[in-house]
């Protein structure tokens, strides 16, 4: 992995997964926790507003 990121920069490409991928995963995890605690469906838009 440590060789992967510099090689992607040399190719002028963004590493994958990237920061946006990580952000989306965190939002989904937060929505899942809220859904569990409140025993109801939670829309992603409730988390990211």
How would you describe what is shown here?
The chain is an all-alpha fold. The chain contains 3 helices and no strands. The N and C termini lie far apart (34 Å).
The profile of the biggest β sheet is:
none
Structural class: mainly alpha
Flag low-confidence runs: none
**Overall mean pLDDT score?**
88
Helical coverage, percent range: 55-70%
Query: Cα distance, first to last residue?
Result: 34 Å
- Could you give the count of β-strands? 0
C-alpha Rg, in Å? 16 Å
Indicate the overall shape: elongated
Order of helices and strands: HHH
| Content of β-strand | under 5%
Pfam families: GFO_IDH_MocA_C
Domain Gfo/Idh/MocA-like oxidoreductase C-terminal: 5-44
Protein name: Gfo/Idh/MocA-like oxidoreductase C-terminal domain-containing protein
Region (Disordered): 1-23
Can I get a quick summary?
The protein has 3 helices and no strands. It has 49 residues and is mostly helical.
């Amino acid at each position: 992995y440590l060789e992967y990121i510099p090689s992607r920069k040399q190719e002028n490409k963004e590493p994958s997964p990237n920061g946006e991928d990580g952000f989306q995963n965190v939002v989904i995890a937060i929505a899942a926790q809220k859904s569990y605690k409140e025993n109801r469906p939670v829309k992603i838009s409730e988390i990211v507003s």
